[in-house]
Design a protein that fits this description.
The protein is α/β, with parallel strands linked by helices and about 240 residues long. It has helices at about 40-50, 70-80, 95-105, 110-125, 140-155, 170-185, 200-205, 220-225, 230-235, and strands at about 5-15, 15-25, 30-35, 55-60, 65, 80, 160-165, 190-195, 205-210, 215-220. It has a domain at about 5-85 and about 160-235: Rossmann fold (3-Layer(aba) Sandwich), CATH 3.40.50.300. The radius of gyration is 18 Å and the shape is globular. The model is unreliable at about 240-244 (pLDDT under 50).
Length: about 240
């Protein structure tokens, strides 16, 4: 069973204490929302989970393997991947070539032919076959979000962190991304979803984590979180963008 265990994470940038003893677990194929107001620490937490930065103290284990001291490419090999709020596709490469990149870089067990077959499976899963030869720069914002999800799926991740997958996306494509998040989760992949689209996050997730100025102030069901006075005071009803 998938198990992500985060224990007493602390992160400081100079005199600023951005994360304060943050602890939580994700077990099995959960779909967990991560919310919080501007400066809450969501991006810092994500960057620690994927290996981009190191905590000052605390640990992160994925399936009993410590990953908080690994570089991002090693974290990806263990089964944890993430997308970015600002998409990072290779703009002058085709959609198909974009899918090849993570597998060719990190997957040493499969041949190029097998990686190609996997790419076609991912394109079919995301119903993007018709875009296989389009350059990354030609895609809409929503299509680039789907492509970034596809690149993660190339590595058969166990845990995916989705950073604002609905931001700047046309409403029709937002509905499509919503459905694919459900499908990926139902296939057995744990998902941590960061979003300011409250309707989507409350309907998709059966559990929410709430950060506020580095403290994890709530961990519970959407109904519990909606009624939590600390959460209401800290976050709900605001539309600020997260930059921590």
């Amino acid at each position: 069973m998938i198990e992500l265990s985060v224990t007493k994470l602390n992160k400081r940038f100079g005199g600023l204490h951005v994360l304060k003893d943050v602890s939580f677990d994700v077990k099995g194929a959960e779909l967990v929302g991560l919310i919080g107001p501007n400066g809450a620490g969501k991006t810092t937490l994500t960057n620690i989970l994927d290996g981009a930065i190191k905590p000052n103290s605390g640990t992160v284990y994925l399936n009993h393997h410590r990953i908080d001291q690994m570089p991002p490419f090693e974290v990806a090999k263990t089964g944890l991947g993430r997308t970015f709020q600002v998409t990072r596709s290779f703009r002058r490469m085709s959609v198909l070539e974009n899918l090849y990149v993570p597998a060719l870089a990190l997957d040493t067990e499969h041949t190029k032919a097998e990686i190609h077959d996997k790419s076609m499976e991912v394109l079919e899963f995301l119903t993007m076959e018709h875009l296989r030869n389009e350059y990354g720069q030609a895609l809409s914002g929503g299509q680039q979000k789907l492509l970034e999800l596809g690149r993660l799926l190339m590595l058969n991740p166990q845990v995916i962190i989705l950073d604002e997958p609905f931001a700047g996306v046309h409403p029709k494509l937002m509905e499509i991304i919503y459905r694919y998040i459900e499908r990926v989760n139902q296939s057995g992949t744990a998902i941590i979803l960061i979003s300011h689209q409250m309707d989507s996050i409350f309907s998709l997730c059966n559990r929410l984590l709430v950060l506020n100025y580095g403290d994890l102030i709530a961990d519970g069901t959407p109904d519990d979180v909606k009624r939590d006075p600390a959460v209401i005071e800290a976050y709900l009803g605001t539309d600020e963008e997260d930059e921590a």
